[in-house]
From TrEMBL:
Location of the active site: K8, D132
GO biological process, one term: terpenoid biosynthetic process
Taxonomic source organism: Dyadobacter psychrophilus
Signal peptide feature range: none
Transmembrane intervals: none
Protein name, as recorded: 4-diphosphocytidyl-2-C-methyl-D-erythritol kinase
Length: 269
């Protein structure tokens, strides 16, 4: 079975408070984007995990795909499989690529082996692997809160808008990014602000990680400004970085303009 785990962006990200378990409660709109890995699961004589494309830190047993398989195999009679991942989504990039791989592995195993795991149980499994992971089970625009692992539908349709993602190649660890944050409650409700015209978001829709990471990595703010100079209706960093994105009304080819970086561009669904 072949599936294509896709990335996400965060449109607005408020880091509200530190929790007793050390994590943070956040408020964010998660939106799927088309930048994707390829994940193939086939029957084999013994379990194996192998990846090509972008090198993933850690060994096969650390990979979230292996963890997803082992977690499901502990509760269901799964045969041995070979998992092959072609990694294309940058790592430590604020795009949730590892979480997407894990969630798509859960969905693929469930479907391919007719396990009949309920939607709610798939969400619970995903939550065990990472805060971002559950979002990728339904994989549709959502207002996410608590650890980012609880969500509700959001009335936001960007279908047909053009998105450009710029990854400058800095690996920013999520732990490092959260450790520099002083949490604070947001003044405006993100769901309300996102109902305003997209041109207004520039002044009201903030990613709290930008305030600590832009001074540390000035290149990130330069890329955000460059996206606005190119006519973006809205530009921001995704998650804990280092990917920046710009949303445009018209198709834009910025590959030459950002030739030093990895660029992905396409239509939003
Ligand atoms: C920042 C966000 C925004 O969407 O995305 P990325 O930039 O990583 O894509 C997420 O909150 C990242 O979620 P995810 O990458 O799944 O994080 P996890 O594996 O659960 O946690 C990694 C570490 O990040 C911190 N963490 C994560 C989530 C959260 N709500 N509060 C936290 O403090 C904790 O230190 C935790 O040990
Ligand atoms: N399949 C995977 N793809 C990417 N990273 C993975 C994967 N499995 C485990 N990881 C680990 O997760 C870490 C970051 O995950 P990733 O989702 O790419 O970053 P981010 O949360 O910033 O989007 C990496 O440092 C890597 O060691």
């Amino acid at each position: 079975m072949l599936v294509f785990p896709n990335a996400k962006i965060n449109i607005g990200l408020n880091i509200v408070e530190k929790r007793a378990d050390g994590y943070h409660n956040i408020e964010s709109c998660f939106y799927p984007v088309g930048w994707s890995d390829a994940l193939e699961i086939t029957l084999d004589e013994k379990f194996s995990f192998q990846s090509d494309g972008i090198a993933i830190p850690g060994n096969a047993s650390d990979n979230l795909c292996t963890k997803a398989y082992q977690m499901i195999a502990a509760d269901y009679p799964l045969p041995p499989v070979k998992i092959h991942l072609l990694k294309s989504i940058p790592i430590g990039a604020g795009l949730g690529g590892g979480s997407a791989d894990a969630a798509f592995a859960i969905k693929a195993l469930n479907q391919h082996f007719n396990l009949e795991i309920s939607f709610k149980k798939q969400l619970d499994y995903a939550r065990r692997l990472g805060s971002d992971c559950a979002f990728f089970i339904p994989n549709k625009p959502a207002y996410c809160f608590q650890k980012g692992d609880v969500f509700e539908d959001i009335d936001l349709n960007l279908k047909g808008k053009w998105i450009v993602l710029i990854n400058p190649g800095l690996h920013i660890s999520t732990v490092e990014a959260y450790s520099g944050i002083v949490p604070k409650r947001s003044v405006d409700d993100l769901r309300t602000v996102l109902k305003e015209p997209i041109e207004n978001w520039k002044y009201k829709v903030k990613n709290d990680f930008e305030a600590t990471l832009f001074p540390k990595y000035p290149l990130l703010e330069e890329i955000k400004k460059a996206l606005y100079n190119q006519g973006a209706l809205y530009a921001a960093m995704s998650g804990s970085g280092s990917t920046l994105f710009g949303i445009f009304d018209v198709e834009k080819d910025l590959t030459k303009h950002f030739a030093d970086f990895t660029v992905w561009q396409g239509l939003l669904d």
